[in-house]
Amino acid sequence: MYRHFKISVYCTVHDLLNITDFDSFRETFSQLTKHVHVDHVYLETYRSRVRIEEEQMKRVISFFESIGIRVSGGITPTRDERLNRFGFSSLCYSDPDDLALLEEVCAMTARLFDDFILDDFFFDNCRCERCIEQKGEMSWSDFRCARMKKVSEACVITSARRANPKVKVTIKYPNWYASYHRTGYCPEAQKDIFDAIYTGTETRDSRMTQQNLPKYLSYFLMRYMENVKPTLNLGGWFDLFECSGNPLDYTRQILLTAWSRPKSMTFFCLGMLLAPEYRSFIPMAGDALAMADQILEYSGSPIGVPAYVPYASEGENYIHNFLGMRGFSFEPTPSYPTDAKCVFLSECAAKDDSIVERIRKSLAEGADVVCTSGLVARIQDKGWESIASMTISNRHISTNIFAAAENALAYGPRAIARATVQLPVIEYATNDAWVLSAGIGEETSVPLVIGVNYGRGRLFVFNIPEDFGQIYALPENAIKPLREALAVNGVAMACEGRFSVFAYDTDIMLLQSFSENYETLYPTMVEPGVRIIEVNPLFEQRDKSERNAIFPMVIAPGSTHMFRLIHEKGVD
Ligand SMILES: [Zn+2]
């Protein structure tokens, strides 16, 4: 048993139909439980027109209960794969037969279980003739969100409660959060319709998969959903898809989900884990969980720079996760963090019609506000000029040379980026806005970070490279002004390449390298009176596991490090 989280395994209806002999299944299942302590299983009743008989399910339930494992139901509301159609198919919510099927499956599942989860295919991507006609003049987003809200209430919850008045229903959200509203997911309403939520933390190769999700998302989305439905985000869910090329992609999903402090973590899915080509992932997962449990012994609640991600918003999609793999620590929230001393805003914040007013207020009250160039581009004709004299042009500069401001006029020593970076050109009024670091072009330059004084606060604009992956290539001296502004717990860490910092309210700081090379790590900003201790949480004798950290520190590819911050008394 783990001290800091529970482990669930999702079993698809196909996995369950494959169990014909429980004695031999007991043997097979032990290949998983030898390495991973399993507390709970989700047992699926329906997926893509395939169902399990109630009697067979009762036998499966008895088996798991007999070996001390708690059971819940699961439903994946998909159609069978249709010919001549692209990609995954949701149910058609204009089709009375599909609606009746969903109600029937929910009722049957509620008869068998006191709680069940909807796998993350509870979306609406049908564009059949009937759906096109029903949509009428509405946008697809508005149409689908309104309809799925109704389906959630009228089909799922109503039919489930009729069958079992005490049943609790959990909705699992997919990892691709920027597209939720486009496919009818509306957590703003659904969080109150469902008893609980669950979070997809599946990340893979962000280049070679269509979803383009950087690994930091396994942490970031968990924290966002934690703030969507506090205390009732039941956990994070990862899978093995597209991890064969680099097994570290798998263990990192597990570790980053763990760093978000989940109540539970779910493995998808039983059949895949036990398949011969994936079985070797099981001991790796077991090691990752054991390590995570030991490290979480030290950490408290996660903290980070408040990042405002309004419901149903999009723009600069997944940018926080690229920045999160360049060492910035975020705590995302669906509501504007009015009282925060520092606020991070990307293009998605433009969804909020009051965003300019909110920025002005935060700045006037003395906060640091960091805006991305994508946000500025979206609001530069919507009141932005009342805050700053700067606009994003349509021109671009490509460069691999960067420099930070040496004084109010000149740039200091040049630093070479690890790749050529393409930046939009920001037009700004000199002596009103101050370039803090810049990309150096041919006889000109373009701001990378630019600052404006406003009220008692400071506005920073971060010029985001056209290819978000180029963020990993930026030299540290060019992003130093942001390191200081976005520091958490009084410390900002610097390291070339890809790395994440996870901060906790217990003054613990976890650092995860994603680099393929040895890199140099050092604090680029430390508040006076803060001392940094290196902790080896896996060292058996706890009192001997800590020592003063010595920087710069060379860190190994893919390594995990823990630091404790000591705030010396009597020092301001
Ligand atoms: Zn349809």
Summarize the structure.
The protein is α/β, with parallel strands linked by helices and 572 residues long. A hairpin with a 2-residue loop joins strand 2 (40-47) and strand 3 (50-51). The chain starts with 5 loop residues before the first strand and ends in a 5-residue tail after the last strand.
Could you explain how this protein is built, in words?
- The protein is of the alpha/beta class and about 575 residues long.
- It folds into three domains: about 5-295, Glycosidases (TIM Barrel, Alpha-Beta Barrel), CATH 3.20.20; about 305-485, Rossmann fold (3-Layer(aba) Sandwich); about 495-565, no CATH class.
- Helix content is about 30%, strand content about 30%.
- Strands 1-2-4-5-6-7-8-9 form an eight-stranded parallel beta barrel, surrounded by six helices. A seven-stranded mixed sheet has the order 13-14-19-18-17-15-16. Strands 10-21-22-27-24-25 form a six-stranded antiparallel sheet, with no helix packed on it.
- Strand 18 (about 445-455) and strand 19 (about 455-460) form a beta hairpin.
- Helix 4 (about 95-110) packs across helix 6, helix 8 packs parallel to helix 9 (about 250-260) and helix 9 (about 250-260) packs parallel to helix 11 (about 280-295).
- The chain is globular.
- The site of zinc ion has 6 residues, from helix 5.
- Zinc ion binds next to helix 5.
What keyword list fits this structure?
alpha/beta; binds zinc ion; TIM Barrel; 572 residues; 15 helices; Rossmann fold; 3 domains
